[in-house]
């Protein structure tokens, strides 16, 4: 029995030991697999050597190489790669580092760089970067334990998610104003009728602003591979940005004010040139207007119905079988004659161009492009062929000087035919199937790369070539529009938000897209007013036309096989509503033109999310208020769906005048407001200075010689920089402009019009000052001479007719104003109020 118990006991020990060994084997295997998985994530590791030279620090780390460059007191560039860093190149960044006073110290554990504006601390084990204010507050820092790492060629930098952190920007991205909790991909994509939450769509602008604890900063990730941004999507630990290949290469920007962050970002990537004045007027388009008699009918109807307009756009049906650089001779037998006739009526023509050149023997552009060898190619040297509107096509290589020069020569033919605008479309690159192979090669300025690296900059380089060709031929400002973009595209082109839908939520999404583009360096932007796909309702069209009057590029556009979408196509009432707001747009052109000039100097956009000037006010990120925006420095627009009868409007700090009747609302409160389809809620900030002109039917028509200067009483000092030039030449770049700062100083009851700078003579010889909110005042003095004030009423809109005898009409509201007129001299004008 004992022996039996012993045998049984040993048997149990044996089985237990066997099981334990088996289990240990699994543990060992799991341990090996875990180590192997960790090894697939290659972290930058600890710092081995440091070389400090002036404003640059070069670092050799355990698994990578890094280079830190102080670009300015507020901008620091960080580069990292698994391989030694070579001389690099950027299509986006045009600025060079500026000489900066700084202090650099290091010890065994960290490196510290201090400028007048921020501190950078680099820890050595592991390599990790921390950006601090001069007083030591954390602005932004790497997430401990993750920092920067590689999985194969994919590189990611992980940033610690600060408490309550918000994120805005990234350009043309759908979704909410605050990007927190979302992830985004940058890969320029043709997305017809995209959903309001679809990503990606057409443009890549890898720049965003982070906001927390009354601090804000900008990060521009300059990498043209497909990139991904994670702002706390599926994790509660970090935000991150990554790319499928190339370097980790980003610019960190810090200023206390968001506006200055945008100014620094656009100093890096460039700013817009002043566009031609006509491009700020109303533009009529559809897919498509043809033949030429139809184009003339549209132009004539706009004039007959007194809807001011400056442009008509031709979509692909103007071409011969959709072949680029051709005209359909049946539909448009005499292009130059048509453009001259339209020019005499005050209209400019914009034509669409796509990059695809049809593969067809005898077709001039194809034969010439093949001869000049300018098309992108497969890795075996054969031209890449993709299918678009004309059929199978080759595509110019815009990343080569040779390709851009060829395109410039082709574009000039349009200018010689009288075309004044070039609409660059399908430049993502879009092809049927939407799957261009990655083994297609691009020159990339003499450093050949694959489609993976060149894809996102193709649209940028196409508009660069289009702009240069049009500018060389015209010898004056062309208008350029693009669908695809990369950071820096603002140097050449306006952008529009592609093939949107005729739906209420798409209208409001468009507002957010344009606001996001604005804080991402692209101030000249627009969307298809009325919606491109589908058939919108009468009320939707009316509301969209109202909003369109307060966006930079005001183009009405609808797709093929949709009902007509001209202002008269929706009935008499909508025609009058539309005319009211187009009229207001034209009267406000001095204000818009001056605001766009501000963008050329500072990068600050025309459309301004309320977050720009109210960055730390949580209410502006509330989804109920996120569509509200500033139009320049003076206006606040509150867009709503056309179907709503009441809306909640948030008024930021300050006092706000109702545009139509001067009713005052104090800020920092939410107000429920009745809505109607005849008026768009628009408010004017206290102390605003708004220049306006008389109504014209196009910018080719001269307004009267009186500038209407609206001043709104307030408690805040304010300066508006007024600007004029000839609206078409490049003489403004040689000092031929008219510019003066106008300052309202409520503390001493003065308005000062500074001495004019520039050599251009203003078109306005008189100034009519209109005072809003100044009560019963009887007079003012201008340079010491008294002027009597006239008490009157002023209407920004005309009354809407009462079409239905049983219906209701809404008379135009009036603002009580005091007015006086004086001469517009070039010297200082001192107005005592």
From TrEMBL:
<feature type="domain" description="DUF5110">
    <location>
        <begin position="707"/>
        <end position="773"/>
    </location>
</feature>
<dbReference type="InterPro" id="IPR013780">
    <property type="entry name" value="Glyco_hydro_b"/>
</dbReference>
<dbReference type="GO" id="GO:0004553">
    <property type="term" value="F:hydrolase activity, hydrolyzing O-glycosyl compounds"/>
</dbReference>
<feature type="domain" description="Glycoside hydrolase family 31 TIM barrel">
    <location>
        <begin position="273"/>
        <end position="594"/>
    </location>
</feature>
<feature type="domain" description="Glycoside hydrolase family 31 N-terminal">
    <location>
        <begin position="67"/>
        <end position="229"/>
    </location>
</feature>
<dbReference type="GO" id="GO:0005975">
    <property type="term" value="P:carbohydrate metabolic process"/>
</dbReference>
<dbReference type="InterPro" id="IPR030458">
    <property type="entry name" value="Glyco_hydro_31_AS"/>
</dbReference>
<protein>
    <submittedName>
        <fullName>Alpha-glucosidase</fullName>
    </submittedName>
</protein>
<feature type="signal peptide">
    <location>
        <begin position="1"/>
        <end position="37"/>
    </location>
</feature>
<dbReference type="Pfam" id="PF17137">
    <property type="entry name" value="DUF5110"/>
</dbReference>
<dbReference type="InterPro" id="IPR011013">
    <property type="entry name" value="Gal_mutarotase_sf_dom"/>
</dbReference>
<dbReference type="InterPro" id="IPR033403">
    <property type="entry name" value="DUF5110"/>
</dbReference>
<comment type="similarity">
    <text>Belongs to the glycosyl hydrolase 31 family.</text>
</comment>
<dbReference type="Pfam" id="PF21365">
    <property type="entry name" value="Glyco_hydro_31_3rd"/>
</dbReference>
<dbReference type="Pfam" id="PF13802">
    <property type="entry name" value="Gal_mutarotas_2"/>
</dbReference>
<keyword id="KW-0378">Hydrolase</keyword>
<dbReference type="Pfam" id="PF01055">
    <property type="entry name" value="Glyco_hydro_31_2nd"/>
</dbReference>
<dbReference type="InterPro" id="IPR000322">
    <property type="entry name" value="Glyco_hydro_31_TIM"/>
</dbReference>
<dbReference type="InterPro" id="IPR048395">
    <property type="entry name" value="Glyco_hydro_31_C"/>
</dbReference>
<feature type="domain" description="Glycosyl hydrolase family 31 C-terminal">
    <location>
        <begin position="603"/>
        <end position="690"/>
    </location>
</feature>
<dbReference type="InterPro" id="IPR025887">
    <property type="entry name" value="Glyco_hydro_31_N_dom"/>
</dbReference>
<keyword id="KW-0326">Glycosidase</keyword>
<keyword id="KW-0732">Signal</keyword>
<dbReference type="GO" id="GO:0030246">
    <property type="term" value="F:carbohydrate binding"/>
</dbReference>
<dbReference type="InterPro" id="IPR017853">
    <property type="entry name" value="GH"/>
</dbReference>
């Amino acid at each position: 029995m004992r022996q039996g118990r012993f045998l049984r006991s040993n048997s149990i020990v044996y089985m237990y030991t066997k099981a334990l060994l088996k289990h240990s084997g699994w543990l060992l295997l799991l341990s090996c697999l875990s180590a192997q998985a960790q090894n697939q994530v290659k972290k930058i590791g600890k710092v081995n050597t440091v070389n400090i030279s002036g404003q640059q620090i070069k670092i050799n780390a355990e698994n990578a190489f890094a280079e830190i460059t102080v670009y300015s007191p507020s901008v620091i560039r960080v580069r990292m790669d698994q391989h030694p860093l070579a001389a690099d190149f950027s299509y986006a960044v045009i600025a060079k580092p500026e000489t900066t006073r700084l202090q650099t110290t290091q010890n065994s554990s960290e490196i510290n760089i201090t400028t007048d504006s921020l501190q950078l601390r680099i820890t050595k084990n592991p390599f990790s970067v921390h950006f601090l204010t001069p007083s030591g507050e954390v602005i932004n820092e790497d997430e401990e334990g993750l920092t920067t790492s590689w999985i194969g060629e994919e590189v990611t930098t992980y940033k610690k998610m600060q408490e309550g952190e918000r994120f805005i920007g990234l350009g043309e991205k759908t979704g909410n104003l605050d990007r927190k909790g979302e992830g985004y991909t940058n890969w320029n994509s043709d997305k017809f009728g995209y959903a309001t939450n679809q990503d990606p769509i057409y443009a890549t602008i890898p720049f965003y602003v982070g906001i927390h604890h009354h601090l804000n900063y900008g990060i521009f990730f300059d990498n043209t591979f497909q990139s991904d941004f994670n702002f706390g999507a599926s994790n509660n630990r970090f935000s991150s940005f990554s790319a499928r290949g190339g370097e980790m290469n980003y610019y960190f920007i810090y200023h206390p004010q968001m506006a200055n962050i945008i100014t620094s970002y656009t100093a890096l990537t460039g700013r817009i040139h002043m566009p031609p004045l006509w491009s700020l007027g109303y533009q009529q388009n559809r897919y498509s207007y043809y033949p030429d008699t139809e184009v003339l009918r549209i132009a004539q109807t706009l004039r007959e119905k007194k809807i001011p307009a400056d442009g008509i756009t031709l979509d692909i049906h103007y071409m011969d079988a959709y072949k680029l650089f051709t005209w359909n001779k049946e539909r448009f037998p005499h292009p130059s004659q048509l453009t001259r006739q339209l020019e005499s009526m005050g209209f400019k023509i914009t034509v669409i161009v796509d990059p695809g050149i049809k593969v067809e023997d005898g077709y001039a552009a194809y034969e010439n492009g093949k001869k000049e060898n300018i098309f992108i190619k497969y890795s075996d040297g054969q031209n890449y062929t993709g299918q678009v509107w004309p059929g199978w096509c080759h595509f110019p290589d815009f990343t080569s000087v040779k390709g851009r020069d060829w395109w410039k020569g082709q574009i000039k033919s349009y200018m010689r035919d009288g075309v004044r605008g070039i609409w660059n479309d399908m430049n993502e690159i879009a092809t049927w199937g939407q799957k261009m192979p990655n083994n297609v090669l691009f020159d990339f300025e003499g450093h050949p790369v694959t489609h993976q690296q060149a894809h996102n900059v193709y649209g940028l380089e196409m508009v660069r070539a289009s702009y240069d060709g049009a500018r060389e031929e015209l010898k004056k400002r062309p208008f350029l529009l693009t669908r695809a973009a990369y950071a820096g595209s603002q140097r050449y082109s306006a952008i529009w938000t592609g093939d949107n839908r005729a739906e209420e939520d798409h209208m409001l999404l468009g507002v957010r897209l344009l606001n996001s583009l604005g804080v991402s360096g692209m101030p000249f932007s627009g969307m298809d007013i009325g919606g491109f796909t589908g058939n919108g309702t009468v009320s939707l069209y009316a509301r969209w036309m109202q909003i369109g009057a307060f966006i930079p590029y005001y183009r009405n556009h609808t797709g093929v096989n949709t009902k007509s979408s001209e202002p008269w196509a929706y009935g008499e009432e909508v025609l009058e509503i539309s005319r009211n707001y187009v009229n207001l747009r034209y009267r406000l052109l001095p204000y818009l033109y001056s605001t766009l000039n501000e963008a050329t100097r500072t990068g600050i956009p025309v459309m301004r999310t309320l977050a720009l000037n109210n960055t730390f006010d949580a209410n502006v990120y509330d989804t109920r208020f996120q569509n509200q925006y500033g139009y320049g420095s003076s206006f606040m627009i509150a867009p709503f769906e056309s179907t709503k009868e009441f809306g909640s409007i948030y008024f930021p700090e300050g006092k706000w005048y109702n545009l139509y009747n001067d009713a005052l609302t104090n800020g920092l409160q939410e107000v429920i407001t009745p809505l109607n389809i005849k008026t768009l809620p628009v408010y004017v900030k206290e102390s605003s200075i708004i220049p306006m002109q008389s109504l014209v039917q196009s910018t080719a028509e001269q307004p009267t010689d009186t500038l209407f200067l609206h001043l709104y009483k307030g408690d805040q000092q304010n300066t508006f920089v007024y600007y004029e030039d000839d609206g078409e030449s490049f003489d403004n770049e040689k000092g031929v402009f008219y510019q003066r700062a106008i300052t309202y100083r409520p503390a001493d009851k003065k308005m000062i019009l500074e001495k004019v700078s520039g050599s251009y003579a203003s078109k306005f010889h008189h100034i009519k000052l209109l005072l809003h909110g100044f009560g019963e005042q009887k007079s003012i003095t201008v340079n010491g001479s008294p002027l009597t004030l006239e008490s009157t009423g002023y209407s920004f809109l005309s009354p809407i007719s009462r079409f239905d005898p049983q219906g209701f009409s809404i008379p135009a509201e009036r603002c009580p104003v005091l007015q006086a007129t004086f001469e517009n001299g070039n010297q200082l004008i001192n107005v005592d109020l």
